[in-house]
Amino acid sequence: MDEELQLNVPLLRRRVPNLTTAAREAGLRAATVSNLCTGKIPVGRAEVRTLVALASLAGCSLDELIIRGSGVRMIETGVKALDLLAPVVRGGTVGFVARPNMGQLVMLAELMLRMKKRGFATVFWDPQSDISGVELVQEQSEFSHSAKEDVYQQIVQLRGEKDILLGVDRSKVLSGELLSLRDRLKEVGARPITIALVDIKCEAADDDNAYGPLDTLWRFDTDLISRGIYPAIDPIGSTSTVLEGAHLDAVHLTTQQAARKLLRRYRELRSLVTVLGAEKISDSDLQLYQRGERLEAYLAQPFYVSEPYTKKPGEWLTLYDTLADVKRILDGEMDAAEPSELFFKGRLEFTS
């Protein structure tokens, strides 16, 4: 829709200081360019040649010149469990809820690395803590600052050209500094800022409102940790506002709902199987249990930042590939495979 397209005015004005003169020399009407910059003319109604000429003047691509989507949209991370069950909302806030030693800082470091691969600018608001894992996040972030003013200036410098992922500790929420930063950034236009909130002291694992309103919630699961299944994202307790309404396409939403339903039933059955044995449940429940096992194993995935420890290369799966694989598991196409054949790997086709 037209209203979901915006001109990246800060980028344009920074790269073309004398925009009116430059536009006129390029054969464009100065009034048209001015109206595009102020929003009087919607970007979606501009002539293609005008937008191409502006991109040429700025020395950028059309993707850089035009900001698409003020509505709710997901960001693909290439992490199967996240993209399927609790997608990151572009320009939203994702909160990590975990107990000690559950991998939340590894997850943040991995997210920083993956978003860099996608062309995001990554900024870490360093809480200056000696807690293990903080240094890994620092290493994977392009920019790391401890002072709020430095974080603000860095974002202002970057925001005209790139989407930004900002990693923040819960201490900045409690102190009010994050709210203050957000208020100042409202005055700075251009591309969205997606915020990832962690709780490095793990003080809010039982708090239902640890960070205030969130667009995405990732709960880390003790049971998955105990069985060495990573990323240990609770498939039932983790969620995202992008799952609400019509923000996902029908295939994603249908697959996500079916996968969550299967994993919920699998978890119920797992308790029975542990106590009574698989022979004590019905054939139909046994089939659901075994498919749930396979899906849980499939959603385990090697991370790039963990390669030195796992000795396995990190895996990136497109959302399309993830949905196709999950559907194969749900439809029973993988019923002959052992869960171990699906565990901690990439696409299903590589397990045969």
Topology:
Layout: E1 5-7, H1 9-15, H2 19-25, H3 30-38, H4 48-58, H5 62-65, E2 66-68, E3 74-75, H6 80-85, E4 88-89, E5 93-97, H7 104-117, E6 121-125, H8 134-140, E7 143-145, H9 148-158, E8 164-169, H10 170-174, H11 177-185, E9 193-198, E10 216-219, H12 222-226, E11 239-240, H13 250-276, H14 283-299, H15 307-310, H16 319-330, H17 339-342
Parallel strand pairs: 5-9, 5-10, 6-7, 6-8, 8-9
Antiparallel strand pairs: 1-2, 3-4, 10-11
Helix pairs in contact: 1-4, 2-3, 7-8, 9-11, 13-14, 13-16
How would you sum up this structure, described in words?
With 352 residues, the chain is of the alpha/beta class. It folds into 3 domains: 2-68, lambda repressor-like DNA-binding domains (434 Repressor (Amino-terminal Domain), Orthogonal Bundle); 93-214, Rossmann fold, CATH 3.40.50; 250-350, Bovine Mitochondrial F1-ATPase, ATP Synthase Beta Chain, Chain D, domain3 (Orthogonal Bundle). The chain has helices at 9-15, 19-25, 30-38, 48-58, 62-65, 80-85, 104-117, 134-140, 148-158, 170-174, 177-185, 222-226, 250-276, 283-299, 307-310, 319-330, 339-342, and strands spanning 5-7, 66-68, 74-75, 88-89, 93-97, 121-125, 143-145, 164-169, 193-198, 216-219, 239-240. The strands form 3 sheets. A 7-stranded mixed beta sheet has the order 7-6-8-9-5-10-11, with helices on both faces. A two-stranded antiparallel sheet has the order 1-2. A two-stranded antiparallel ribbon has the order 3-4. Helix 8 (134-140) links the parallel strand 6 (121-125) and strand 7. Helix 1 (9-15) packs across helix 4 (48-58), helix 9 (148-158) packs parallel to helix 11 and helix 13 crosses helix 14. The protein is globular, with a radius of gyration of 23 Å. The mean pLDDT is 90. Keywords: ATP synthesis, ATP-binding, CF(1), Ion transport, Membrane, Nucleotide-binding, Translocase, Transport. Its main location: membrane. Pfam families: ATP-synt_VA_C (PF22919).
